[in-house]
Amino acid sequence: xxxxxxxxxxxxxxxxxxxxxxxxxxxxxxxxxxxxxxxxxxxxxxxxxxxxxxxxxxxxxxxxxxxxxxxxxxxxxxxxxxxxxxxxxxxxxxxxxxxxxxxxxxxxxxxxxxxxxxxxxxxxxxxxxxxxxxxxxxxxxxxxxxxxxxxxxxxxxxxxxxxxxxxxxxxxxxxxxxxxxxxxxxxxxxxxxxxxxxxxxxxxxxxxxxxxxxxxxxxxxxxxxxxxxxxxxxxxxxxxxxxxxxxxxxxxxxxxxxxxxxxxxxxxxxxxxxxxxxxxxxxxx
Length: 285
Known about the structure:
single chain; 2 domains; two-stranded antiparallel ribbon; transmembrane; Rhomboid family intramembrane serine protease; membrane; Rhomboid-like_sf; transmembrane helix
């Protein structure tokens, strides 16, 4: 957490607000380009061979590659990830969300060049397979990391699978994890590198921003005691069981709201998902 705080103090003003909107906009531009001329996608791919031979625009244009060529699926994807992205940005803050997204992009580029270098050394030169590395690297894996991050932040939030079946994010993430594992073993080395680098971004970000002292015996005991204290029944007007200490909203105002108690505040203060990470901690002394 310290390194992120230092970076934010130094470069926080450079963070791009609503980054997910720009990302979806890039997908949309790529979709339009594909509809106009499908062959142009070949000029956008993250191909280390072509980049090393002067086509440096590919370092950026691979972000424009559409995640799907079907308009309906693209619209569903855009709506879904817009909701995930905006919620994560409100939760983490603009700078941290920027670090997460751009970090994933950087790891993806590094992964492509690392794979190219390994294959070059093993084959003693450039092969046809090396020219096709770019087909395995796309923003699909950036979306994957956004989904996993959201599932970790809000595991009990429900979404409608296929707009019909209610399911919690943690179960979707579990299924997603199984599919990722299957894809990892079934795909080629380029696909494996792309999957690994996207997950590397997710793992590094979360392990480096979480305080591992929370797992010490003293801290575990303190948290267990805190949870026991929170089990005491309480109620609010209209029969509501949860109420945000900042905005005053309850689950009756919006059934999709998630509520959590803050362990850093002194007293029984509960917050909604919009204020859990942004409120000022309450101290009695």
